[in-house]
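Researcher: I'm preparing a figure for a lab meeting and need a structural model of a single chain. I don't have an experimental structure, so a prediction will have to do for now. The sequence is pasted below. Please return the structure as tokens so I can convert it later.
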Amino acid sequence: MEFINIIYLTILVLSTAYDDLSKNKHATQSTTFLSPTDAFVASNAVDRDITTCMRADPIGGTSPYKTVWWRVDLGGVYNIYSVNIKFKNYTGYEIRQRGRLAGFSLFVSRNGSLDSSILCYKDGPQLPPLNFTKTCITSGRYVIFYNERLNGVTYPEEYQTVVVYTELCEVIVQGCETSGVYGENCEQQCPPNCKNNICHIQNRTCFGCASGWNGTTCNTECTAGWYGLDCKQQCSGNCKENAVCNHVTGQCDGDCAAGWTGSECNKECEDGTYGNNCVHNCSGNCLNDSPCNRQNGHCEGGCKPGFTYALCNKQCLSGFYGNKCEQICSGRCLNKLVCDHIDGTCTEGCEAGYMDKLCNTSCRDGYYGKNCSNVCSSNCRTCKHTDGTCSCYAGWRGPNCTIACSKSYGENCQYLCSPFCINQTCDPLNGTCLTRCKDKSYGDKCIAEIREDHESPVSNSIPEAVGGTLGACVLLIVFAALFWMRRKKACMSGKTRSLYAKVEIRRTEDSTYQQLNISGLENENANQLQDISYIEPNNTYQQLDVSELENENANQQQIISEVEPNNTYQQLNVSELDPSNAYQQLNVTESNPVNTYQQLYVLGTDNVNQQQDIYQN
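Model: Understood. Here is the structure written out token by token.
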């Protein structure tokens, strides 16, 4: 038996110069026939001893097993030339054994799975020899023997279908053990771009090309835009500057175009990133938190309030804020700080005189200062909302109108009291002296001096009548304090027909304004009218009528007393005054205590000699 084994192996070696790829390699099988000594294990088929065989449990018939397989792992992917199987033979039972072997299949696989294997040989319908060799030019790592006896399947008559044992004594896989070679002596190099560096063991053609190559010998690069195994994968088209991807890996050798990332530049930038390989971050200031453009980072929908430029990465220029930075800050933030670039608020508060969050509202009337918390003085006519400086009501002065006038009067105390007021003190509102006037001055403000001559002629004039009414209008404005008026009768010569009148005015305690009008004194008129009007500071007036002056009355005297100082109208009639009387006397007593001076106008007299005497008590 040993001699037979040696002869068999010698013949096998001599018949071919290829390498034995399966010798003593790891083998497995679907089932193992039970024996006390483990005499039927899978490795018996690769030990190069034809006297030891593997055996699996029987298939077919009543056996629970319907299929059987045996597999050897070559330890790597090799270039395979042939597979030789030595099946167990029993003397006198060769046909039975061939019937048991009949219908088998041979597969070559890279991962050991039948599903992804290449069918090398399928037996049938004739019975195979027990020493079977099949040229199987391919490449792979696993060689698999497979057989079956399925229920319900009709097999050829010579096939054994009941108690079918599988007994493989040797399985010899021949090929080139060295990677990347071919030929009978495994000495020639395969093309460099063959898949797994393996080519046809006889004619050098590649079973498949490495990624990026095609052609029978894999010496042609993939067409531009394609890459990978068999050049079946298309480039992403997102390489920078429209470059073509690598024909082997599909990667962009010159980096990704803006907006794309990944080894093959086939992934868009995530929200919030942009640019080449998505290395840049968006500003985060796009309107409504929308993502920026993945290529250039622009905020295509605009910026949030307070930001500007295409990337919305710049705050508004100083002094501007809001949407598109078009709104102008109030410029009234505290300490000249700029307003918030987003909403224009003055975060530190407002300048004095302004309020609200934008500091664009002035303090309401009556308030001023920081936060408009200060109250303007009640003495202010107008109050500046920033610092409270005022234009003052009469009687007050100072920046806040809190200082009372002293020796002055009027708005902002702009007028000095008359130096002729006692102690130069006067009413702060209108300037009237509070006490008395000094010598030689009179009036409510003590600004007029008493004249030295007591009498002065009064010129005669006759204005034309207006509207055909009275021939003349007499307006007499008399500003005086308290005066005594006295009328004296004057003598006049027989044929002169002139009237001589004398008025004596005495100074009273205080000043006011009085007016005396004497009008319509005609030569022949028996009824003449004398109006004495008394005007106070509150614009009161009084009227005195003098009528019926008789020609031949030589001496008449009328006393006028107790003229009221209020807004009343008083009338006093003096009658039967003879115009030829040379002297008349008019006394006015107890007049308004605020009367300062009087003025006498005599209008419309004909050939009249009159005298006005003004005395100051």
